[in-house]
Amino acid sequence: MLKAVRPKSALSDHQDHEIPIQDVSLDIWDKKYRLKSKQGEHVDKDIDDSFMRVARALADVELPAKREEWYEKFLWALRHGAIPAGRITSNAGALEHKPATSTINCTVSGIVEDSMSGILDKVHEAGLTLKAGCGIGYEFSTLRPKGAFVAGAGAYTSGPLSFMDIYDKMCFTVSSAGGRRGAQMATFDIAHPDVTDFIKAKRENGRLRQFNLSCLITKEFMEAVKADSDWKVAFPVTEKESIVDGLNVNDENQVVWREWPVKGKYLTKTEGIDAGKVACRVYKTIKARRLWDIIMSSTYDFAEPGFILIDRVNEMNNNWFCENIRATNPCGEQPLPPYGACLLGSVNLTKFVKKPFTDEAFF
To answer: Any idea what DSSP says for residue 211?
Structure first.
């Protein structure tokens, strides 16, 4: 039977009243975070060994004269309720046992460019990221909609959802090989022509099961919902496409000007109130409230997609002047810019309860 062993020096004055570690907690530690050799032998003999391994790895990045001081500080924190994210607890100090793993739990992919090389480059990067144990988020509304013409191939694209299937299968394969379930987030702009397909994607049994899905909701869309007005779904066009297809960029029934994460390759307004916005070809118009109802119905029936107020995210971002956020980590609680990363952690609140299960208990 697993036991949580702790040296006497680590015990608090309230050791007689400390809430014991549950068997299920020990089981999770043993299966997911306990360091083991290739042969399955326990490198971490007990939980305190895990604490010491992590504390030592964190302290070793300091100057030699400061390492012991920081080792003691980190070890004290771990023994008193600080819980680093899973990749830190599992991989920090693992050395030769896990040489290619990361201590970063979550990342966001670089922008998925609307080209075959751009799409496959990000699949490659994501595969290496997942192999290292990190979760990853992407925005897929940068890809042109289903049925759009691809001049280079002389054919029509299958759309972003079909390419998401590639990422889904890659994640399943890589995570199965590594023994840990992969985690991915896909975000999608509410103004993309394929947004309805994105919302309904998980209604198809077995599809995109390695993804969490979230819609990027804008103020403009919410105002349209409130007013029960029309909503134009559109995708950017290049200057060449606008000329070849005879688009009138001044006709709002053909083109709308919107913010877009990729600007260099598309027709962009250089002056006026819409300066910096990209010309987007209108594919169709639907009632905003109807689209809202589709989201609400899918959320109720399938618990997805999620709902990200992307305008508000960027307004509240302290780095608004140098980055544009369009995606989050896999669980959705941490918005991140392209190639952003986040370190997660928790606090064991039971460590702050003194004299638990007694009349004198306090927090």
So the answer is: E
pLDDT value at residue 4: 56
Long-range contacts of 220-223 (CB under 8 A, 24+ apart): 221/190, 221/191, 221/288, 221/291
CA-derived radius of gyration, the chain: 25
Q: For residue 351, what pLDDT is reported?
A: 84
DSSP 67: H
pLDDT for 10: 47
Within the chain, which residues score under 50 in pLDDT? Answer: 8, 10-14
pTM (2 d.p.): 0.88
Q: How far, in Å, CA of 263 to CA of 5, rounded? A: 57
Domain boundaries, the chain: 8-99, 106-342
Quote the CA–CA distance of 300 and 101 in Å, as a whole number: 37
DSSP 157-198: ---HHHHHHHHHHHHHHHHHHHTS---EEEEEETTSTTHHHH
SS3 23: helix
DSSP string of 195-210, one letter each residue? HHHHHHGGGSTTTTTT
Q: Which helix (H) or strand (E) holds 69?
A: helix 67-79
What CATH architecture is 106-342? Alpha-Beta Barrel (3.20)
Check residue 6 and give its pLDDT.
52
H/E stretch holding 59: helix 47-59
Q: Which of 25, 166, 43 is nearest to 96 (CA)?
A: 43
Task: Read off φ and ψ for residue 179, nearest 5 degrees.
Answer: 85, 0
